[in-house]
Design brief:
Length: 104
Amino acid sequence: IGNAAEHSTAVMAAMKDQMDLAMNVAIGSSTQIALFVAPVLVFTSYFVGPRPMNLRFSVLEVLAVGIAVGVVNMVAQDGESNWFEGALLLAVYLVLAIAFYFLP
C-alpha cells in the first residue's frame, strides 16, 4: 500500500508502451526501500520499541536478493522487454516464494 502510487504509475506507463519509464519506476522503488526505509526502521527501533531491531539476514535471504538483482539486471540490460522476460520474473518470484515457504 505504501508504494501503490508508484506501482500504478509503472503499470500505466507499461500499458502505454513506455517500458523505459515503467522499469525505471519499478527498479527505483525497490532501491528506495532497500537502501533507505529498512535502515531507517532499524534506527527508529532504538527509540520506539522495547528491543532494537537488527538487519541480520539468513543465507537464503541473501541468496534471494542476489538472484533477484541478477535477474532484474539481465532483464533491464537491453532497455527493452517482452512477455518472456516478464514470465521469467514471475517464475523467479514463484521459485523464491516456494523456497521460503518450505525452508525454515
